[in-house]
Fold each of these.
Amino acid sequence: MKRFALAIALLSELSLPSVADSQRSAAEVMDILMWGREPVGGPFKLIDQNRINRTNEDFRGKLLLVYFGFTYCPDVCPTDLQNIGLALDLLGESAEGVQPLFITIDPERDTPEHLKNYVPTFHPRLLGLTGEASSIRSVADAYKVFYAKVLNEARDDYTVDHTAFIYLMGIDGNYIGFFPPGTSPDRIAEIVRKRLPPLR
Ligand code: NI
């Protein structure tokens, strides 16, 4: 048993450097966000649940609520996506000025077809975005999102560890701020309302 535990410890140590090479730790990105140490956000080229190409430029003139997660997430992602959906409902007609985006950090399983079954359960206007693993990594890095696959060998399965902030981006595409996980729909709506562009 001891030997087994040691082997596991060695294995995880061996696999650590490759993870560290490709990205920063969860603590590091959270620190950057909390203290505003680096710019947040950036350009992306992804595809939505209807296989339509989407770039950040498509959403100029709208506020963006950007959330990174994955459809197999058992509780945090669904709760936050539900809160985003409810916040949009609270905003009523003026919610037209906001585009909610769900960017998967599990593009291997979250194909457009899979997203198509998932995103409408939270809000009809929620767009699910996926793409090449490298495109996902680069947009996640730009938003200071940490994510890493965690293998469950017993079940021949994996989950994805990830930071879960809701990002609010301005109509010019610039970062305004973030909501921590579990922010209530009322609070999201209250903050978003102050930033909405005038209705046309
Ligand atoms: Ni999640």
Amino acid sequence: MPEKLKVLHAASEVVPFIATGGMGQVTGALSGALAEHDKSLDVRVVAPFYAKFRNKYQTQTKFLGSAEVNLAWRVQSCGVYELSHDDVTYYFVDNEYYFGREDAYGYADDGERFAFFCKAVFAVIEVSGFVPDVIHAHDWQTALIPIYLKTEFVEKYSNIKTVFTIHNIEYQGQMPDFIMGDVFGMSDDDSDIIWYNDCINLMKGAIVCADKVTTVSPSYADEIQVAGGYGLEPIIREHSHKLSGIINGIDTKVYNPATDSLLGQHTYTADNLSGKASSKAKLQGFFDLEQAPNKMLICVVSRLVSHKGIDLITYMFDDMMKLGVQFLLLGTGEHAYELFFEEKALQNPGDVAVSIAFNPEIAGMIYAGADVLLMPSRSEPCGLAQMIASRYGTVPIVRRTGGLADTIRDCRHGDGNGFVFDDYTVKALMDTIKAALDLYTNRPDDWKNLIKATMNVDFSWNLSALKYGDLYRELAK
Ligand code: GLC
């Protein structure tokens, strides 16, 4: 049997262990899909052993050993643990000082914490003996891996190739200059690599150093070269020969209304939607909304930040409610938005409910029970909620940007699986909600057909996992 190509994903989050957003869902589902569909690969994942899940999983892991990791003048110890889950081997990097904290991110020394993680990945390679052909690094937290491979480890690991995936270019890992020598241990000669617009920019360094750069949809790959790159456009253009956009999938085994245990006895399929109707009643009950089967229930499941289009929603909120709909929101984020929606729930009892939380179980209930998902993002690298909602027959209303443009087609122009609008304006969003409401209210059979069309789109990882596999093979040639 030919030897398998060894691929190591490095990520600061990965489901089922830890996810604070879409990136963790994708690293988990992608590595699982690769292991399942591409038997020519040996796929493993390395992630920090955060206290939050260490307590839960430690007994299932095997301690492989420990090593010392240098960050400039610091010497830190790194414990390496191994765990097998669904055909994927996971390595966890243990260090009490950096990862024994309440949350994954949000600390003043995050730059140092993830520099440690990146350095520790090389310790994991030593301790485990798994020397990958390709390291696939995700977002700025792992940007130093391709950078170290072109600097400190250029000779030692000259055979390892890298893929760097941009999940969201808005978060670039910008830091003050002293960190370069004092924490990363890099010499001034290498400052060209990670210096950009008067500060350190880790994402820029990864784009420069990685052998391939990908992002999570073809449209976003175009957008970040022209205006959506948050200042990195010239760098992306310079390296566009190694850039490609590969659309994310979702785990269609986990997200399956026919088998989802979160739905209890209300499971359903595209051909028999009665479970969806009862899921709506259950959802309305759970959130103290009026039990109104024929009121269109609009939901938002999102981080509450302006580029997700939350500002647009606040500007049109009262007008939208005048249409006689119900509204449900789940998410956390900027405090002003949290307060805004909490106040709206108080002002509209029975019609508006809000849960300020990141809660996959409640999200599951909402995807199943709502009629419409609103995702009017200003920018959206890929977006997962529109695909998950679709799978549950909740019709997405999205703005044409990034992965939303690549996954949703407007049903007003022929075959569609949702509603799509172009302008980032209150008017465009309101007109689209009105069009959806008109179809929902006045043409119930057409609405049902739309739900079916929505549910029947294949958002699985099958195709995209193959594309990543091809990319790895091309690199390893
Ligand atoms: C980020 C992006 C989101 C994408 C996810 C997974 O969270 O904002 O659009 O779906 O990463 O790639």
Amino acid sequence: MGETRHTKLLIIGSGPAGYTAAVYGARAMLEPVLIQGIQPGGQLTITTEVENWPGEIEIQGPDLMIRMEEHARAVGTEIIADHVSSLDLSARPFTAETDSGTTWTCDALILATGAQAKWLGLPSEEKFKGFGVSACATCDGFFYRGQEVVVVGGGNTAVEEALFLTNFASKVTLIHRRDSLRSEKILQDRLFRNPKVEIMWDHTIEEIIGSDTPPGVEAVRARHVHSGEVTEVPCKGFFVAIGHAPASELVKDQLETHMGGYVVTRPDSTETSIPGVFAAGDLTDHKYRQAVTSAGMGCMAALEAERFIAEQAVE
Ligand code: FAD
Ligand code: NAP
């Protein structure tokens, strides 16, 4: 049997939301404990340049996350390299079981487990991730000024990404596996009107083609779903926009979720459907999915958790 430990504030997740919550929680003298999970530093550790974190014209994603970890630790957060395997939110204190066998109990809980982009699952996609293959146009679009790019997907994300990319790219080809988009009509209208956009209906992606030295994308091979005809579309950037999966497995039967698993929070708040449980970052955010917005929500969660803990002490 592992040990059981108690903390006033437990934070699950070590992305921008988790570390920011930790900084605020520690500075409020809550002595928070943060459990990092299997991806210490979160999604930004799998990217290179980050050019939209205020105060840094350019910083490598992994370096930014190391600095956030150092900051959280320096102000008094206990950072634990472990993964939460289950949560019990049915009674207070809340209970978290971890892979190492330690059981954590806490008075307030901040969930910051993030989300993961869905990928096509092609070996060539894996090979060129970070070298032309991306799942974030807001992050990487800037690198494709004056070049041709391809976006795959047919939802709001794909259409928004395609439209955003027209700000930089010379041409954006949207490839979709059906003959109609599922995105909002207003976005579709905007897309259809944009002279830089070409749409390839009824095509699936077979392979991303590129060079090894230096590594980089040169084209994608797409197959027509009915005729089987194969077309090579030249591009320097290939953006996968087929949806995101919020990491809400731990709480999906305990908290209210929507839109494919995003944790519901009250408007202008990080409060979830259970008092004392707060959610921040991509776990709750189907819309913005940015480091800075995640950090902002982490701050809000810590301030709300602090207030919650203080109110419980008075009762
Ligand atoms: P994440 O960063 O997703 O972190 C989630 C954390 O939760 C991880 O540490 C994980 O280990 C932990 N976790 C999950 N499950 C458990 C569990 N069961 N137990 C314990 N821990 C758990 N945004 C920008 O603003 N600018 C950019 O340039 C940019 N570039 C990007 C490039 C790429 C390739 C990707 C994928 C995303 C990029 N983003 C960028 C988006 C940005 O990374 C996310 O919006 C942000 O990281 C979300 O932060 P978060 O704290 O909510 O969660
Ligand atoms: P989504 O709505 O689930 O759409 C995913 C798209 O990718 C679909 O068109 C789907 O095709 C396609 N797709 C899925 N798997 C695929 C695969 N393996 N190969 C090829 N194509 C594949 O996801 P999303 O666009 O990320 O949106 C998620 C949620 O966030 C939605 O509720 C959306 O409304 C919301 N959102 C809102 C906004 C906004 O309000 N501005 C912006 C972004 C997202 P099919 O159509 O054939 O299924």
